[in-house]
TrEMBL record:
Coiled-coil positions: none
Biased composition (Polar residues): 34-45
Protein name: N-acetylmuramoyl-L-alanine amidase
Organism of provenance: Corallococcus interemptor
CDD domains: PGRP
Keyword 4Fe-4S set for record: no
Pfam families per the UniProt record, alphabetical: Amidase_2, Golvesin_C
Claim: Hydrolase is one of the keywords in the record: yes
Amino acid sequence: MSLFRNPFAAAAAALVLSACGPQAQPTEAPPSETPSQPSTDTAGSTLPRELDPLFAQAAQEFNVPVELLKAVSYAETRWQMVVGEAEFPGQQPASGLMALRGEDLVQGAALAGVTVEAARTDALSNLRAGAARLSQLATDANVERGDLAAWAPVVAQLSGITNPEAQAEHVHRGVYAVLNEGAVALNQDGSVAASLEPVQVEAKFERPQVRAMAAGPDYGAAVWRPSPNYNARPTGTAGDPSMIIIHTCEGSYSSCWSWLTNSASQVSAHYVVNESGSEISQLVREASRGWHIGATYDSSLNGGTSSWLNGVSANHFTIGIEHGGYASQTSFPAGQIDASAKLSCDIARDNAIIKDSYHIVAHGRLQPATRTDPGPNWPWSTYISKINSYCGTATPTGEIFVDSNNANNDASKAKFSTTGAWTDGYSSGYYGSGYYYAATEAISAPATFEFYLPTAQTRTIDAWWVAGTNRSATAPFIAYNASGAEVGRVSVNQQVNGSKWVTLGTYSFTAGWNKIQLSRWTTPGYVVMADAVRVR
C-alpha cells in the first residue's frame, strides 16, 4: 500500500515485510569482523493486497465488530505490519497490524490457536490473535457485543495505557475518532487494500479532562505535560545542547507521552509529536537533561563530528524528539514530518544548533547496538530541507548528498540504484539509513549514485563506507558526465577510513544527470560497500 486517505489523520503507507533472501558471498561482516545478521533483518510475511477480507474473517470468528477491529488497528499502526523494537526499558515490542505486545500477544496467539511467531509476522494470524484477545477482554467485562460504544473500556485495556488522561485520549481521539471519520488505504495501482466507512458513535468512556492545557515553556505550539524524569545538565560546554536526536515511540502518541511522564519508567524525552502532526507534547524543558538515549557519544558513528564529546553521555548535550510510530514503517505522515521540522527549527534556532544531518541525527545512529529508530525510511533529506526552510536558512551551498536509500534523497537532484546482486546492511557507522554491499567478481554490475547539475561544473566527490577487513582494498569508483563519458576513476581501500567522508577526486561534469559508479570488478574474495556520495 502506498496511498492513504483519511480525514482524521494523514497516514503513512502500509509496511511490506519480505523474508530475508540468500546473501551475496562472501557475506558482509561488521567492522568487528564477527559475522552477524543486522538487527533490522527480521523476517516477516508480505502484507496482502486486500486486508478487508482478513479483518472480516478475524472479526466474525471471534465475534468482534469488524469496524472496531479496523479502527483499533488503524489507530495503533495505520494498517502497517510493524516489527517493533523496545524503545523504552520495560516496553515490550509491538507486532503486526494490531501492534500486539507482551501478554496480549501471547494470550491472543493461544486463543487463536497460532504460534507467537505467526502472530508476530503473519497478517491474518496477527488479526486473529488481536480479535481473540479483544473478545476475551469483552467477555471478562460483560460487554454487549453489538454496542460499539460499549467496547471503549476494552479498547483502553488492550492499549496497555494506564494513565487515565492518556487512556481517554487514545479512546476518543484515537480509536473512536477513526470510527467516526473513516479511513481508506490504497495499493499502488489504486485498488482498495482496506477501508472503514464512517460510523457515528460516542464511546462510553470518560472524556479527556476539559481544562486549559498549558503551553510548552519552550515551544508555545506544544502542550505542557511535565515529566519527573530529568535532571540538570552538567555545567560547561559539554552540557550545552548541540544536537537533536530523532526517535520513534514504537507505539502510539498517547502511550508514548504516558510512559515518558511516568516516574516509574525512568525515561523521558523533551518532546513527542503525534502521528498526524496535529499535537506536540513538551515533557522536559530544553535547558534540562532528558533521559532519552542510553549511550555515550562516539563521534566515529557520526562522521567524526564533535569528537571532543567522545565518552560523554549523549543525554548531556542533546534534545530528544519522540514521534508516534515505528522504526519499521515504510513512510511517515507528511503532517508529522512537517510539524516535527517546525519544532526542530525552533529548537535549533533557540540553542544555536547546526541544522544538518550531523547535528540532527537518528537515535539508531548514536546507539546502533540496541536501536534503529527512526528507521531506514525517515525522509532525512526532506526533513533537513524543511527545517532549513522554516528557519530561513539553506543547506551548504552547492552540496549534494546521494544516499543509498532514496527516501533520504532529494529526487530532483539525487538518486541511487543498483544492478545485479546487492544486499542491504546496517553495521554501525553508516551514513543515512544503512548501505548496500556486493561480492567482488569479474562483472561490473555497479551501484550508481546519480546527481543533477543545471550547468557544466567542476566538482569534488567524496564517498562514505563502513570499513572492515573483508572489504575490498581496491574498490573501483568511476565518474561519468551526463553524456556518459568517463571523466575519472579511482580505487580506494575500504578496509580503512570508514564512517567518514573520503575524497575520491575532483572532476569536470556536464549539465544534466552525472554518475559515480562503484564497480564490483576487482580482486575477488571481498565485498565493496555502497553507502553514500557527497558532491561539493
